[in-house]
């Protein structure tokens, strides 16, 4: 795990990093742990020091849709909006693997916007990055067929884990892409026949 200084050096000014160290609460989560829930008031914004976080939009009747992943050195745009506006969360965030975050209290999130230019730039940049990722998710949903969506999903997982062998089930993919396991299994078999992946027991080796 990187320290706060290591994770944000060159991004945030030294005086701000000192304030983060003073005010932040360091929290750890195991893989699968719930970090932010839907309809929850958020009292602090997470800065990711280690691990990865999966952010999804949930509908009780239609299941979940993957919005984006967060990696080391990033923060959750949706939590920023809730912190600044004192609103309930509209997303659910879970630890994709063992994860450590520095939780920044709401009052500091607001105060630092006017006090530190690097913090304001970091927040704006985070908004832009997460917005692009959400637009990609919308484009995949609206304009890509399911085979393209699954391939994009697998490639994103490879980039996130830095490993071409992914430990996940067909149901995991179906849940993230809000489709059926039967459809996922059929497409994965087709991709294997095309030598794009290799299907193993609860694992997928990505070849492209």
Note down, in words, how this protein is organized.
The chain is α+β, with helices and mostly antiparallel strands and 208 residues long. 47% of the residues lie in helices and 25% in strands. The chain has 8 helices and 10 strands. The strands form 3 sheets. The chain has a 4-stranded antiparallel sheet with strand order 2-6-4-5, sandwiched between helices. The protein has a 3-stranded antiparallel sheet with strand order 1-7-3. β9 (197-200) and β10 (203-206) form a beta hairpin. α4 (106-115) packs across α5 (117-143) and α7 (170-177) packs across α8 (181-193). The radius of gyration is 18 Å and the shape is elongated. The model has no long low-confidence stretch (mean pLDDT 89).
């Amino acid at each position: 795990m990187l320290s706060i200084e290591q994770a944000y050096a060159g991004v945030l000014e030294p005086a701000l990093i000192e304030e983060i160290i003073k005010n932040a609460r360091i929290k750890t989560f195991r893989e699968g742990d719930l970090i932010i829930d839907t309809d929850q008031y958020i009292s602090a914004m997470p800065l990711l020091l280690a691990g990865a976080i999966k952010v999804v939009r949930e509908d009780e009747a239609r299941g979940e849709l993957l919005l984006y992943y967060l990696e080391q050195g990033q923060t959750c745009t949706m939590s920023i909006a809730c912190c600044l506006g004192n609103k309930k969360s509209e997303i659910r965030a879970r630890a994709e693997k063992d994860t450590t975050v520095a939780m920044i209290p709401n009052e500091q999130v607001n105060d630092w916007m006017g006090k530190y230019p690097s913090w304001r730039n970091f927040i704006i940049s985070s908004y832009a990055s997460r917005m692009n990722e959400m637009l990609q998710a919308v484009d995949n949903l609206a304009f890509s067929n399911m085979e393209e969506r699954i391939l994009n999903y697998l490639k994103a997982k490879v980039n996130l884990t830095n490993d071409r062998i992914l430990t996940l089930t067909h149901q995991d993919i179906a849940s993230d892409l809000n489709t059926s396991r039967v459809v996922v299994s059929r497409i994965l078999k087709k991709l294997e026949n095309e030598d794009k992946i290799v299907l193993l027991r609860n694992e997928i080796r990505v070849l492209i």
